[in-house]
Amino acid sequence: MPGANALEGGVTAMSMKRSKQRNSGSGRQSNEEDAWAKPPEPEPEWSVVEAKADASFLPFAMSTRFAKGDFILHPKFGKGLVLLVEGTRIEVLFQDGKKKLGHAVP
Description:
By secondary structure, this protein is mainly β.
């Protein structure tokens, strides 16, 4: 009988099986270094800060905005060099080591 059920006429239904999705990466490991990346700058040493004249240092205040490379004079930690600026935080190299401090909003 036409139109009844196509399965009765000897035609079997086929199932579609989906394979698992594969990553589209290039197969490289993520820990490989980028050949075009800029090499990291060497960290300054404390001797650079120590050699600067006292007049080169800016007094530290939370209301003051600092830039990378500024020399500061902190009331508790003493002389320091600003290594990194991230928003309202700065990383400063003091004689006792690195410290993260707050500073003015841009």
